[in-house]
Design a protein that fits this description.
The protein is an alpha+beta fold. The chain folds into two domains: about 60 residues, Arc Repressor Mutant, subunit A (Orthogonal Bundle), CATH 1.10.10.10; about 180 residues, 3-Layer(aba) Sandwich (Chorismate lyase). Helices cover about 30% and strands about 30% of the residues. The protein contains ten helices and ten strands. It has a six-stranded antiparallel beta sheet with strand order 4-5-6-9-8-7. The chain has a two-stranded antiparallel sheet with strand order 1-2. It is elongated, with a radius of gyration of 22 Å. The protein starts with a helix and ends in a 9-residue tail after the last strand.
Length: about 260
């Protein structure tokens, strides 16, 4: 049986989602809401805490509680990887028209602002060495990506992609951040050195934001981060890329479909 504060949260959530409480609207004072729902102040605060943790409302010190502006939703599916692979053989003009972020958001290239930085002095720590199957200290190329909707001030996610330096240095273009955004993304980059991906493994966990992460991603108090480690394996059974992606839990939906073999 739902608790009193859950029922209140459900009602307020419904009002937010159907537009009765629009983005930017100020909620009534806690005491007013308490009287409206005929509950104690602790119960009312518990209900508001639920909505705050979901990123639906935010408290502004000295000003009250407001409905948060809707953030750009992102739908990430396992089908995106085959979509990326199919684009590898498309011509450059076709690849320039759209990318994985556009695929996940429904936005266009002009709707987005992209930033990338490279560091070729990175070395594999214990976690990355284990993922790649190489010794600790192996030289890596670290690439950091942030993409944001031009309507928002914070990026949709923070992605750090790692490549084995000795593997990709054969194509100097892959070491230059000025070539970003690369039409066709990482799968096309790897194809320029003869690498075809066979499969991708996603490892997903969640945790509270740390330090600067909450501010950079504009994550409200109580909202967790989705941590996705993407491990790309080529047709020779080598791990060729490891990518760590930090995604705010209030705007990302991960959607996976697993085909099952039929009984004979």
């Amino acid at each position: 049986m739902a608790s009193k504060y859950d029922r209140i949260a459900d009602d307020l959530r419904r009002k937010i989602r159907n537009g009765e409480l629009s983005p930017g609207a100020r909620l009534s004072a806690e005491t007013t809401l308490m009287e409206q729902y005929k509950v104690s102040l602790p119960t009312m605060r518990s209900a508001l805490a639920v909505l705050r943790a979901e990123g639906l409302i935010e408290s502004r010190h000295g000003h009250g509680t407001y409905v948060r502006e809707l953030r750009q939703p992102v739908w990430r599916t396992n089908e995106r990887y085959q979509w990326e692979k199919n684009r590898v053989r498309a011509d450059q003009n076709e690849r320039r028209k759209t990318g994985a972020t556009e695929h996940d958001t429904g936005l266009t290239v002009d709707d987005l602002e992209f930033a990338a930085s490279y560091d070729d002095s990175e070395t594999a720590d214990e976690s990355l060495a284990k993922a790649f199957g190489v010794p600790i200290g192996t030289r890596l190329l670290r690439r950091t990506y942030q993409t944001r909707s031009r309507r928002e001030n914070s990026p949709l996610s923070i992605a750090e992609s790692y490549l084995l330096y000795d593997m990709v240095k054969t194509n100097p273009d892959l070491l230059d951040e000025e070539n970003e955004p690369w039409p066709g993304g990482t799968q096309h980059q790897l194809s320029t050195i003869g690498i075809e991906l066979d499969r991708i493994v996603d490892e997903i966990t969640a945790r509270p934001p740390r330090g600067q992460e909450a501010e950079t991603l504009d994550v409200p108090t109580g909202v967790s981060l989705i941590m996705l480690r993407k491990i790309s394996i080529d047709t020779q059974d080598r791990v060729v890329e490891v990518s760590d992606i930090i995604m705010p839990g209030d705007r990302y939906e991960l959607r996976y479909t697993t085909p099952l073999e039929r009984w004979s």
